[in-house]
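Our preliminary data section would be incomplete without showing what the modeling component actually yields. Below, a chain of 285 amino acids is followed by its predicted structure, encoded as tokens that our downstream tools consume directly.
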Amino acid sequence: MKSNNQVSINNSLVKNISKVLIIAYKESTEQLEKIFTQAGFECEVLRQENKPEYQNYSHSYLCLMNHCRAWETAATETKPTLIIEADFVPVFGIAKLPLQFDPNQSNVGVSWLYTCAPQIYSISPQGHAEGFSVSTVAYIVTPLAAKTLLGLADEVTQKHGNKNYSSWDSTLDKYLRDRNFKNYIPWRNYGEHGGAPNPEHHQHQLSKTHRADVLYGKLAFTPIYAANQKNPVMAFFSVRFQARCKGIARLLLGRFLRPKIVQNSKTPGKLIRFALFRHFSCNRG
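Predicted structure:
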């Protein structure tokens, strides 16, 4: 399976990404900028403006506005753009990790590098996993897909307005697939969501925290959720243990790979191997 092999230089992220856009509000981004810049990426920080009228906007809508700005930039590029939020913590050597789709494929939409509640639909001949994820913590978007997603922003605004909560990030996959794009999830997560719990999610009966179920390697620095604790090491291992257990539980309960997907697949063996080896094999990236 290609996603397990040592990556060639030509297929590495750093060779196939136009730039890294870091979405932030007041958070410090120096550490992220340093990591990506030293790895050879061009970085740009997009900070949310602080306007009086934004005071009444929902956090979810402000988040959408921030990503919309990123999509506007990504739509003008000639190569895919990596968009990350300020609380993303990459793994060591992320620049050399493989692109999770064929760069010559014309209908690629988004490729998540960090996933939340992921699912797989199929495995391409090259070993890439077409699938679904909810989070926008870290993902790659192609220029055409970025231009298309601007239409999603308009739909959300018309349907929910700017003051109401919307789980717009869970609709990216469907919106793009309905327009003949294919979206991809990684062999393993290229980093962690290091942020604090989101109270707005909790208010709408959603999990207020989400973490990477399985990582591609060691993290480049300690996430905020652990760094701010009395015992950062214990806090980190506790969170990671829970995340791994949750990921394995989703696999065993048929939520990562749905039984109907396997039954209807022409290559069920590929799907099952990808799902199992994702959790139960050593990192080789």
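The CA atoms of residues 81 and 222 lie 25 Å apart. The two ends are 12 Å apart (CA to CA). Preliminary results of this kind motivate Aim 1 of the renewal.
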